[in-house]
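Anyone up for a design puzzle?
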């Protein structure tokens, strides 16, 4: 509950700071449609063969975690703490 409140405050402050930027709904250079189509294919195959769906979900969780760590490591103070 407390983490949810802290995260909510963080998101509210961040959206307030970035409110002057335009909304982005697609990834540039046509990559958006390719990614959507690829994930759609994986989900279709996952309905035919369920273990692939489990592996895809695990892959997205691991890649999301790694991406989050990369984003957090871009903060100079945190980078020093992570790489000691």
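Challenge accepted. My sequence:
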């Amino acid at each position: 509950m407390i983490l949810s409140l802290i995260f909510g405050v963080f998101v509210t402050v961040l959206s307030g700071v970035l409110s002057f930027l335009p909304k982005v709904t697609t990834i540039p250079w046509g990559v958006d449609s390719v990614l959507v189509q690829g994930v759609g294919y994986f989900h279709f195959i996952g309905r035919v063969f369920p273990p692939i769906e489990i592996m895809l979900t695990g892959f997205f969780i691991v890649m999301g975690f790694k991406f989050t760590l990369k984003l957090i490591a871009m903060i100079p103070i945190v980078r020093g703490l992570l790489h000691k």
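A detail worth pointing out: Residues 38 and 64 are 17 Å apart (CA to CA).
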